[in-house]
Amino acid sequence: MRKELKKLLAYLLTLGITVSSVFTGDAAVKAATLAYTEDDTKITESNDAITITTNDDNQTVYTLTSSVTDGLTISLKDNETVILDGKNFTLNGTNVHSDSGDCFESTPALTVDGSGTLIIKNIILKGGNAVRNADDLGSSPAVYVDSDEVSLILQETVTITGGDPSEGHTQSSIGTESSCGMDFSGKDLIIDTNSTVTITGTAGYPSFIDLDRHCPQAATESSNGLEFAGRTLSVASGAKFTVTGGMGQNGCNGSDINDEIPQKYIDDYINAQNGTGGGNAINFYCSVFDIAKDADVTLIPGTAGKGGTAGTFTDTDGSTIKGTDGFDGLDGKQIALESGIISDLDLLKSSIPEEDIVSLKLHYLKESENDYHSAVYYSQKANGVLFAHLPVLDIDHYNFEDWYADESYETKPNLFYNNYALTADSELFAKYTGKQYTVTFYSDPDTIYTSEIVTYPATAPNITSPTMTGYTFLGWFTDKACIYPYDITSPVTKDTALYAKWEINSYQVTFDSMGGSSLDNQQVTYNGTAATPSAPTKAGYTFDGWFTDKDYTKSYDFATPVTDDITLYAKWDIASYNVNFDSMGGSSLDNQQVTYNGTAATPSAPTKAGYTFDGWFTDKDCTVAYDFNAPVTDNITLYAKWNKIPDQQKPNETPADNPSTGQTDTKQPSTEPTDTNQSSDGTAKTSITLNVSSLPLQKGKSTTAVKATLYDGDSIAKWESSNTKVAKVSRKGKITAKKIGTATITVTTKNGATASVKINVQKNKVKTKTLTVTNVTAKKLTLKKGKSFTLKTAVTPLTSQDKVKFTSSDKKIITVNGKGKVKAVKKGSAKITIKSGKKTTKVQVQVTK
Known about the structure:
This protein is mainly beta. It folds into 7 domains: 54-349; 358-432, Immunoglobulin-like; 436-504, Sandwich (Immunoglobulin-like), CATH 2.60.40.4270; 506-574, Immunoglobulin-like, CATH 2.60.40; 576-644, Listeria-Bacteroides repeat domain (Immunoglobulin-like); 651-762, Immunoglobulin-like; 770-848, Immunoglobulin-like (Sandwich). The protein contains 3 helices and 65 strands. The strands form 16 sheets. It has a 19-stranded mixed β-sheet that branches. Strand 55 (741-749) and strand 56 form a beta hairpin.
């Protein structure tokens, strides 16, 4: 009762301790000295020595960064798995200690509670030691588990040692208790594959002579290495498992005394002390000890201590009384089998006479008519094993049902309080039933045809083949792509989805070119679509698509599923060609579309300042004049010829770099000239015109898109910004956006003329607002096979950062590169799609021979 009061007082005192909290997720960690946060999370005063992380398997990992002196408690929750990695540091329990005159018990190095599995690796665990104290409190085990829902897995290198005892609180008191290395009453204790685990119990405190009275005092008992009352102790393949019991202590010799000692104390002095027994390597209760054949298990019991030699009492008359010699202690056992079964017969023989050993043969699933998969265990006669602890094999595709005393599964074994007594060699038979699986049949990847439940080792049912209009059933497959056929004769081993494979019926699509070049017919599977063929050709005509009737009332959609034979008819339009007018620097003219063998109309003469127009020519050198009565049979470009007017001023456009937007072309309508300087008689001295009146520009970007047009004899004197914090401009006209806002850029000529453009600096990227093709009329273009034509585009605003992209709808007919160059590959019709940002335009291209 006194000890319990001390423990309660210690607990109450610790509630006032303030330490920094560590929230550990699913598990709570604490030291022997506890405190509580507001949400009842247990925390430790040794947190600096422990880091808490989560691994790739979402498991909490406690890692020691140095040795811990106050012990550790890990509380598992919801069957989680937690890892304690010691990194070869030492985790010590709390030693017996005093505070304000009160004694506090020692603690284990590691206490585990809750429910789940703790993996322990690369650590040294030492139980709390006893220290001389008024209450003679003893030491503690290194590891303590008292929850039947906790399992431990020891990995790599783990060393476990119980706490050491101490001398008594006075010179005449016997020493304190020693401790086992591990006290385990959990679920499973597993020594993992190729691990090295050592568990050691400690010796009791030695027998000694009271120095004041010369009276011999007894030694305390030595402890066992492992106290095991869990479900299963397993030593895996390649593991090295060593357990050592505490060594017994020798008893002290009796003292030689004379008549100075009162008569009633004589025996206390002259009688020798007994030697104490050695500790058992393992104390085993009601459990299963399973050892792999190639595991290395060494159990070392403690050696008993020897009894002391008696002393002699000599009276005043010279007579003597001889004391009693002490008895020798008993050696410990390798395994003290209180109850339970063990797989290693030789190990059991080391502790129990062979005639007292009985076997228990456990039969699992039959491998053949008279052959079971079996395992043999051994125990001491009249002992037993908890029925719930019998090892059950996890057999693929089967569920364990129960144990029976006969192979026909009719007789249940006799139990006494859930304990199976072993009075003779015995056999038990595990009954397993096949797992049930669902086989689902799909007539198509998303439609269930039927489903069946089968019990292993049954095969899938041989159901009636499904039917589908337009298809032929070819069998069942395990994948939606129907690549891997299913063996209907094999046992079903999991929930299985089977998919029907179908062969699709085919139909003919016939192409009637209506006088054009012939095309091959197509075979198309049911609900498939016909491929768009190469466009047919017909002299002087342009192909205008396929129709389902000769009257061309319904065009054919090649995305339409084919469900029957069909004939398609070609529609023809007379061909038209582009007549392009290149004014060679003069005023622009509209291009013309002329039908096959038609003639182009003579356009109005273009104008060019300082020049006179001298006709249209078929070449840039203006050597071959064009005859507007000639029939047009192909695309053609005509070039204006100019003659210079002597002594006449002409506009001169200042050089300017292309804008840094990556566009194909940047033609823009000019603003009206700003004429700021005139002579008194009204004649213009100078004039300047900018190609834009305003431009958006993203912050941080630059442009040279602003162009100036002025007259001969004048030149640009300077570029200026109204707000250089918003936009600045170089002396060559390069504008750079600095800050969101608006600035006016003014251009001044040497003759004093000025023109301005407003720059709107924005945060976001400049997007394309308009996109046009400038050298194709009506968005149609006709090319001869092998010819090329470069599409010219214009975007607004000039500073758009959206690139212009070109794509062909059919690369077998026409190709187009990133600069808009179209090449005619073979006869047919296809479209060029031009896109800039969200703006799109298209050009229909007809390729002829």
